[in-house]
TrEMBL record:
Belongs to the DEAD box helicase family. DEAH subfamily. InterPro entries: DEAD-box_helicase_OB_fold (IPR011709), HA2_WH (IPR048333), Helicase-assoc_dom (IPR007502), Helicase_ATP-bd (IPR014001), P-loop_NTPase (IPR027417). It comes from Callorhinus ursinus. Transmembrane segments: none annotated. CDD domains: DEXHc_DHX32, SF2_C_RHA. This is Putative pre-mRNA-splicing factor ATP-dependent RNA helicase DHX32. Residues 72-238 form the Helicase ATP-binding domain. Its EC number is 3.6.4.13.
Length: 745
């Protein structure tokens, strides 16, 4: 049934919308005037502050504000609404507030509002900004939920969350009954979680006709979204402002030098405004940061200070959005240079940006299911990404975009849309989630772009090896418990195995440390030797996983015995460790421990330091990471993968690299194919231990190699009883049975 609404003033200049049937004023002008005189905030019942009106004027200047009436009418009369708008038009902050007004008008009878974001920092910053604009408390009426951090209560009306967190919520509440309006923001980013939500919500909308779905996207994806969801209303917002585009085609071959030259030329020109530089990868960010800081200190101080801000999109870093006081001060005394990479577009929130420098290429991770490894490839960005980078320029006056490529390159070499993550990533976690959802009857997912069949088969095969699937291809009891952890399935399996091997406490620490950002600080030039000297104090002879435990335990000891947070930060600085990363590891570990207790897994007392405990930790690790084993084939540190013929070296920060002791067999946590084929976070294992724990049907499927022959000899030397057990398991789980199980609904 269509809902009809009318407008009722909630303040002098803002309009709120209420259905006629629930409008308590019933057309009485005196009642409306009385409400207006009180100036009460309907969300908390308190009078509006003066700051509310200041921010309201800013909101009314946003390009999307003109479309409020159109949006509200479409929201009232339709189940799905698509909002198309350029970057920074206001759709991410205003649309959720309007949806909250709608839910308030019907007394939250269908639930509150949730708005998804692809990036963690964006979710946090939007929640803070919107709580300020709505004149309510963060964490109460407005909140946010990101991995390992929940700033909401049961009373929260509007919550921002990362798309993967809403996806995880569907495991316990498949039809998302707590929400009356779901907003999928930045859909054009095409993350795996957003694509999965787009597909699953089709079924949820059919089951819940009262539920509203809002899809926010850049204009480039609108035609595809319209065909995917059918004939649904579209609200279009355009942010028009002049931008001068300068193509520097000759600069592409020497892009790094051109970037540095442009930064200093802009600064010396005296033109006001901050600079944003889009580089290819994080390595380039670090390199540019060091050079610009070094060279910037030699510039004429009369031009103002050059403040360099590295912005890493993948980390939980602060967004580039200073407060009002800093904004004014920086315009007078400072010019900021923000160095970022692909996906950093949504993290730039400052109106002071007047110059953008774009290299036009990015380094992407593309997963190869045949070798179970990522390849780091450099390729042109898409035309849609290039357009979004243009749109972040400040709207108060004309900006200037420097493209370090030609117009011909933009039209011929750049693809129209950003690559879909689902077609380039490891899908094992996604398939585990879909299998879990299938228990609730939502196993079918109509993807906007279907993933490659080979990637799906590899994901199913891996889950089968990890014992997450039963003989019918459904989730086993192991698989159900594994899906409870917000981790990679291999890491979840290692935690479950640690219950059997009495090393849960140690395995939780390892899981937290490898999930958090890198705990080692980026080193300034000349500090390498001092840093290595400090890091050697944490090295453990058994491997890097054990070294991470040492670092975490040292951090915990300092945190418990320090009088202030400054002491902890100083300790981290002195030892060249990343304090934010260690703090995050502490938070992650606490949540993982809470999950272990909630599902009542056995948890033994910590015994780190004993030989038996070290062996048990390796057993737990091997239970999850038996697919990530390598052997030093020539005794000089050239490690050949057991699953394929790629050769890699230990990372320079590995304890084995520092001590120059290269073990023959190692278990590793990460491997990417790039210029330097490094395996990261490695620990020594014995082939005997590997053969005791590897699933026999996985071992039988390994390609022929010298390493496999050595392992066969090891198996022959194992006890006859062990061999009989393995043969029995191989009969139970033959390749034909495995092939039959590897099907997805």
């Amino acid at each position: 049934m269509e809902e009809q609404g009318l407008r009722c003033p909630g303040s002098a200049s803002e309009k709120r919308y209420f259905p006629e049937s629930l409008d308590s004023s019933d057309g009485d002008e005196e009642g409306v005037l009385a409400c207006e005189d009180l100036e009460l905030n309907p969300f908390d019942g308190l009078p509006y502050s003066s700051r509310y009106y200041k921010l309201l004027k800013e909101r009314e200047d946003l390009p999307i504000w003109k479309e409020k009436y159109s949006f509200m009418e479409n929201l009232l009369q339709n189940q799905i609404v698509i909002v198309s708008g350029d970057a920074r038009c206001g759709k991410s902050s205003q649309v959720p507030q309007w949806c909250a007004e709608y839910c308030l008008s019907i007394h939250y009878q269908h639930g509150g509002v949730v708005c998804t974001q692809v990036h963690k920092p964006t979710a946090v910053q939007l929640a803070l900004r919107v709580a300020d604009e709505m004149d309510v408390n963060i964490g109460h009426e407005v909140g946010y939920v990101i991995p390992f951090e929940n700033c909401c209560t049961s009373e929260t009306i509007l919550r921002y969350c990362t798309d993967d967190m809403l996806q995880r919520e569907m495991m316990s509440s498949p039809f998302l009954g707590s929400y009356g309006v779901i907003i999928l923001d930045d859909v054009h980013e095409r993350s795996i979680a957003t694509d999965v939500l787009l597909g699953l919500l089709k079924d949820v909308l059919l089951a819940r006709p009262e539920l509203k779905l809002i899809i926010n996207s850049s204009p480039h994806l609108i035609s595809k979204l319209s065909s995917y969801y059918g004939n649904v209303p579209l609200v279009e917002v355009r942010k028009q402002h002049p931008v001068e585009v300068v193509y520097l085609s000759g600069a592409q071959k020497e892009s790094f030098e051109s970037i540095l030259r442009l930064i200093f030329e802009i600064h010396q020109s005296g033109e006001k405004g901050d600079i944003v530089v889009f580089l290819a990868c994080e390595h380039d960010i670090e390199k540019a940061y060091e050079i610009v800081c070094q060279e910037g200190s030699n510039l004429n101080p009369d031009l103002g200070e050059l403040v360099v801000i590295p912005l890493y999109p993948k980390e939980k870093c602060a967004l580039f959005k200073p407060n009002d006081e800093t904004e004014k001060r920086c315009q007078v005394y400072q010019r900021r240079v923000v160095l970022t990479a692909s996906s950093g577009e949504s993290l730039i929130w400052s109106n002071t940006v007047k110059f953008v420098i774009d290299v036009g290429v990015e380094r992407r991770k593309v997963y190869n299911p045949r070798i179970r490894a990522d390849s780091l490839i450099t390729q042109p960005i898409s035309q849609s990404q290039a357009e979004i980078r243009k749109q972040i320029l400040g709207s108060s006056s004309s900006g200037k975009l420097f493209c370090l490529y030609s117009e011909e390159f933009a039209s011929k070499d750049m693809r129209p849309l950003k690559p879909v993550e689902m077609q380039e990533a490891n899908l094992t976690s996604m398939v585990l989630f879909l299998k879990r959802i299938d228990i609730a009857g939502l196993g079918h997912c109509d993807f906007m772009n279907r993933p490659a069949p080979e990637s799906l088969m590899q994901a199913l095969e891996d889950l089968d090896y990890l014992a997450a699937l039963d003989n019918d291809g459904n989730l086993s009891e192991f698989g159900i418990i594994m899906s409870e952890f917000p981790l990679d399935p291999q890491l979840s399996k290692s935690i479950l195995a640690s219950c059997e091997f009495d090393c849960v406490e140690e395995m939780l620490t390892i899981a937290a440390m490898v999930t958090a950002p890198n705990c080692f600080s980026n080193l300034p030039h000349g500090a390498e030797e001092a840093a290595l000297t400090c890091w050697k104090t944490f090295l453990h002879p058994e491997g890097d996983h054990f070294t991470l435990i040492n670092i975490y335990k040292a951090y915990q000891d300092i945190a418990l015995n320090s009088a202030s947070e400054n002491c902890v930060e100083k300790w981290c600085h002195d030892y060249f460790l990343n304090c934010c990363a260690l703090r995050m590891a502490d938070i992650i570990r606490a949540e993982l421990l809470e999950i272990v207790k909630r599902i009542e897994l056995p948890c033994a007392e910590p015994a780190f330091g004993s030989k038996e405990n070290a062996l048990n930790i390796k057993k737990a690790l091997l239970s999850g990471y038996f697919m990530q084993i390598a052997r030093d084939v020539d005794g000089s540190g050239n490690y050949l993968m057991l699953t394929h013929k790629q050769v890699a070296q230990l990372h320079p920060l590995s304890g084995y690299s520092i001590t120059k002791k290269m073990p023959e067999w190692v278990l590793f946590h990460k491997f990417s194919i790039s210029e330097n084929n490094y395996i990261r976070i490695t620990s020594e294992i014995s082939p005997e231990l590997f053969m005791q724990l590897v699933p026999p049907y996985y071992f039988s499927n390994l390609p022929p190699s010298e390493s496999k022959d050595i392992l066969h000899q090891v198996m022959d030397h194992l006890s006859p009883l062990s061999t009989m057990k393995k043969e029995q398991k191989m009969c139970e789980k033959c390749p034909e049975t495995t092939e039959q199980r590897c099907t997805i609904q």
